[in-house]
Amino acid sequence: MKKTSNIASYLVLFLMISWLFAASSSAMELDSSKFRFSGYGTFAAGKVIDSEPDALFFADTPSGAFYDDRLEVKPETMLGTQLDVDLGEGLRLGVQMTAKGGTGFDTELEWLYLNYDIVPALSLQVGRVRIPYYHFSESIEVGYTYHWLRPPTEIYISAVTVMEGGKFIYTTHWGDVDIQTQVFGGSTDPVPAVIFSRKFDATIEAGLHKIYGANLEFTYESLSFRLGMTHAAANGFFQDNSNILGGGAGVVYPVNPETAKDDTYLSSLFYDDGKFLLGAEGWVKDSDTGGRNNPAISWYVTSGYRFGNWLPSLTYSNWKDKSEKAIGTGEIDQSTITFALRWDFQPNAALKLQIDNISTNGEPSSSLPSGLAPVPDLQFTNPANKAGNVDDLTVIAIGIDFIF
Amino acid sequence: MKYFKYINTLISTLLLVTSLVMPIIGHSETAVVVHPSNDASFSNKDIQRLFLGKSKTFPGGKTAIPIDQPMESPIRQNFGKSVLGKSYLQVKSYWARAVFTGRGIPPKEVNGDDELKKLVADNPNTIGYIDDSMVDSSVRVVHRF
User: Fold this and answer.
1) What local confidence, expressed as pLDDT, does residue A377 receive?
2) CA-CA to A272 of 20 to 30 Å: which in A68, A192, A368, A394?
3) Which of B3-12, B70-79, B120-129 has the lowest mean pLDDT?
């Protein structure tokens, strides 16, 4: 994430582009109808209610913000604002700023993109845009758009969510089936991998030296089906603060983008007729970190039924891998059962209650000291004192998602 | 048995009359309207795609500007169910997802039938929907529901 110090330069760029297109397009008048201001946000509080003492639940992957046995408000509370400027001639500028509790409510530039309609059915977005990995990846922070307070963390695990790059979006139809295709590419600077750093007593930064991919989404009546693939080459470093790799405390291991690769294949299927909701999503990941193969599979199924403005739902999600990890061979097998209740008490706001029960059944990493052993849980449960494993945890959270 | 026959006839007649009258007194029809110069023909799906931002041109290829009624108005909610096939909350969620992923901006909203009809009558690129009783020669009806 770009911090406040970078915002000024983005705003200057934003204003320059606005001025450039305003000046070059005689047909355009920058009246108020050309500007659209909107926003979204979440106010939530949660805590771990059933686990070992000191257990944590990482509620926000990018920031590493977590719930523990005290009621916390910051991890998932956030506000986002968006300005869209119609520059005419098929050009639109979008800028989105966010302030998240997980990062101390620092203002961050989430997006800055220019959208150009090449032809009515084909548009190009360039700038700082969200990576369209999975079904909800691009709108994951807009909780109002889905039925959970938090989508299944086994699937929505990425610490890197925004790239500098672009994407083509092509919309067409075949009979009554609407089809949307995205082809995208870009890169990111390495960002701190907070959860892994905490877990392994290391300083880790991870980025995407190069990322590209495509997805196809078919919609027919209440049914939507999505297929996607993403290829990413990672960069960054791993600074081993407590010598868990045996090469010495403080040694820095760079991540080589030539060998650290990650291919993800995704599909999702959703049915929502306004009453009955049924959805499933899954991915298969073929990763390679410096010659170590790390295949993983993750999926969930979810179902709910609307009673007026109330939508209770149940979700089962799972992550499983058996891999040669950077710190020995281990296996992660994590499952979560989620009960979520959404109540649309206002047209622009929904109150949500979510209870997640997470359990793990894996094998600890073979090369770690037995007292450390942070695997087999994925990256969501971890004793603060790193003295043992948590294999079962329940977390409760209540919040309001809103748009304006 | 004879009385039963009379009662059956009476009930059938009442049901027939009720079924004919109820739509008239229940709610009036809504008309989807375009500029009189727009001679394109529209299917329900064409209209749905325009109002969900999935298509930006009329069936003939001209640029289309859909215009919506106020979000919480009965005519808008009826349009959502009958033409878009989505509930009020689904439409809200659909556009929130589109806006905050940069995929589109929802149609401009106006204050009601009068304003919408005037905009459509003045601009050949627009399309909207009004109460059928408001239709006059300044607009062309392409669909009723």
Assistant:
1) 55
2) A394
3) B3-12
Rounded Cα distance between A211 and A235, Å, is 11
Q: What per-residue confidence (pLDDT) applies to A192?
A: 81
Checking DSSP bridges between strand A35-50 and strand A78-88, what pairing results, if any? Answer: antiparallel
Distance CA A399, CA A59 (A): 13
* Cβ–Cβ below 8 Å for B97 and A36: no
Q: Which amino acid is at B143?
A: H
Q: Is the pLDDT reported for residue A302 higher than 90? A: yes
A403 to B96: CB separation less than 8 angstroms, yes or no: yes
> Residue A84 is nearest to which of B63, B97, B105, comparing CB atoms?
B105
What global pTM score does this model have?
A: 0.84
Q: What is the pLDDT of residues B38-83, one digit of tens each?
A: 999 999 999 999 999 999 999 988 999 999 999 889 999 999 999 9
State the complex-level ipTM.
Answer: 0.84
The burial class, CB within 10 Å (0-12 / 13-18 / 19+), for A381 is buried
Measured between CB atoms, which of A33, A138, A344 is closest to B101? Answer: A138
C-alpha closest to that of A371 among A389, A344, A355, A348: A389
Q: Which token pair is A65?
A: 């913000």
Whole-angstrom Cα distance, residue A274 to residue B80? 11
For residue B124, the distance in angstroms to the closest alpha carbon of chain A comes to 18
DSSP string, A347-363: TTEEEEEEEEEEEE--B
B99 vs A84: CB contact, 8 Å cut-off?
A: yes
